[in-house]
Amino acid sequence: MRWATLPWRKSQESLNFPVGITGIPHQLLDPGARALLDALPCYVSLISPTREVLWANKALLQEAGAVVGLPCHQLYRLRHSPCPDCQLGRALEQGSVSLWEESLPGSMLSATHTLVQAVPLVGSGGEVLAALKISTDITGLKARQRQLELSQREYRALFEGVPCYISVQDRDLRILKTNRLFERDFGRSQGRKCYQVYKGRQQKCEVCPVERSFEDGQIHFSEETVRRSSGEPMEVVVYTAPIRDHMGQTFAVMEMSTEISQVKRLQRELAALGQAVAITAHSIKNILSGLEGGAYVVHSGLRRADPALAQKGWEMVREGVGMAGRLIQDILLISKARTPKYKNVSPQALAAGVVSLFEKRAADLGVELCLLEPGKEPEPLRVDPDAIHTALANLISNALEACATFQREETGRVQVSVMELPQEESLVFQVEDNGPGLAPEVREKLFREMVSTKGSSGTGLGLVVTDKILREHGGKVRFHPGAQGGTVFQLVIPRQAEAGEHSSIQEGVPGSQGQPPFKEGSPWKSPGTC
After folding, report:
1. Could you give the count of Cα atoms lying within 13 Å of 210 in the half-sphere of its Cβ?
2. What mean pLDDT is predicted for residues 362-370?
3. Is residue 251 within 8 Å of residue 244, measured between CB atoms?
């Protein structure tokens, strides 16, 4: 209701009421209007153009006592002079209805904050006779408003400040809102489906904790592997919680994801170390048996004065000592962190040095081993040469063993090559064999568990060590099936050496989700044959 439509007398001449101290009638409102205003649970006063109170309703009289005749600034502000920010001027001087909020510290009223509406009362000649001032106590409302604003600021600080990725999703798994950390690592994602953002999928995940929270209104969690917008994989633990409306219905779900890549890596390394202890015990037992056998042969040769027999025993002892040394070195490499000792080395020369160490072993196994000559000599590479030597030696050793154990008419062949990857600003050491390849169950476990295809003669530490060395260089190990069978392994080392964590990955496995099949002419194709 607009107060300007309330019934009041049009002029003093039509009334027989007493005249106020200012000569302006103090009863411009008819009895019905006064009764209605007396019933209101707010403060109502009639203010003259000189800012004096002509009339007050019951609520105001009960609160402040006898206020008729007082200046309004004394009643509402306890001031002895007019308020410099008086808002009644618009109603009294311009004849316009006005609305404002007014703080009342130290007034005659218990309210500290009011919502005020001023309505001019206009005479028959168009002059403003008085203004009806209606003040509603909103002190409690303002307190709740301040508390709400504080809660909103606290929520915003929490939403943006927590060290985890937060998104709010609807029933279609469409992202409605994200926090700053999410936007930094996954990009602006509002309006997109979560599985598109997290995993680059076109179909939703088989088991989705967000859907489960929508279904039962409970908190759920899972562990997932996702990819940042840069393509870098990341392992996260995901918690989902329902967001309900005032009816208790779930209309959205908040998903909170925390990166646990480092934790999972440590778990795998600890598991690998524990597995290594068990495997090592068995391996050491075999090594000791070999050493005992070699020592017995040496003793027999010396006792019989047979140099050939003693030499054979000595070779057995040397082989056993070498196996023990390599086993201990691998365990030390995976059991502690180390910083690479960088030097500038020739990649081709480093590869040649490793290949030369395996020439005799390759010949004994009946496997052809060669190092391909590059079209252009690669530029020097800054790496830890001893560490890369170990990593490359592990790959060549595995490739020779794979070819030697594979029964086929074609001669076993291992090709080693060095190539530049300008598009990735990296250099690659590649080892390709024509062996039996890797079974799917083996591919899934590589670099995560100690896997060996050598039976009792292998510990599975080699690839774990290789992966760790490459991660310490900020690089990664990649593998895919060879064009003519077998397997291609690559050590990818960035030209700008920077220690960091990169996941070793499987590339180009035909039929694997998200990975392209091997194609002729791809950058991973072997540059030639031996």
Report:
1. 24
2. 89
3. yes
* pLDDT tens digit sequence for 255-303: 999 999 888 888 877 776 676 677 667 667 767 777 888 888 888 888 8
| Spatial contact of 372 and 355, defined as CB atoms under 8 Å apart | no
Contact 396/416 with Cβ under 8 angstroms?
A: yes
Sequence-distant (≥ 6) Cβ neighbours of residue 4 within 8 angstroms? 97, 119, 120
Mapped onto helix, strand or coil, the DSSP state of residue 231 is coil
What is the Cα–Cα distance from 345 to 340, expressed in whole angstroms? Answer: 14
What would the mean pLDDT of 523-527 be, rounded to a whole number?
A: 36
Instruction: Count CB atoms within 10 A of the CB of residue 158.
Output: 11
Q: Per-residue DSSP letters for 233-245?
A: EEEEEEEEEEEE-
Inform me whether the pLDDT recorded for 70 exceeds 70: yes
The length of the chain, given as a count of residues: 530
Do β-strands 412-421 and 367-371 pair in parallel, antiparallel, or remain unpaired?
Answer: parallel
Contact 461, 450 (CB under 8 A): yes
Q: What is the per-residue pLDDT for 11?
A: 33
CA distance 385 to 368: 25
Cα separations in angstroms, 172 against 192, 202, 205: 10, 13, 13
Lookup: tokens for 55: 């009339």
- Tokens 């049009």 label which residue? 10
Contact by Cβ (8 Å): 504, 497: no
HSE-CB at 168 with a 13 A cutoff on CA atoms is 13
Whole-prediction pTM: 0.46
The H or E element that residue 186 is part of is helix 180-186
Crossing angle of helices 347-357 and 385-405, rounded to 10°: 50
List 428's β-bridge partners, or say none: 419, 492
Q: Give yes or no for a contact between 167 and 194, defined as CB atoms under 8 angstroms apart.
A: yes
Question: Within 10 A of 55 (CB to CB), how many other CB atoms are there?
Answer: 23
Please give the torsion angle defined by the CA atoms of residues 54, 59, 63 and 64, in that order, rounded to the nearest 10 degrees. 0
Both tokens of 52, joined, read: 């004096």
Kindly report the CA angle at 403 between 399 and 408, in degrees rounded to 5? 160
End-to-end CA gap in the chain: 97
Tell me how far apart the alpha carbons of residues 243 and 165 are, in angstroms, rounded to a whole number: 17
| Owner of token pair 């646990």 | 260
Measured CA to CA, the distance from residue 530 to residue 523 in angstroms comes to 19
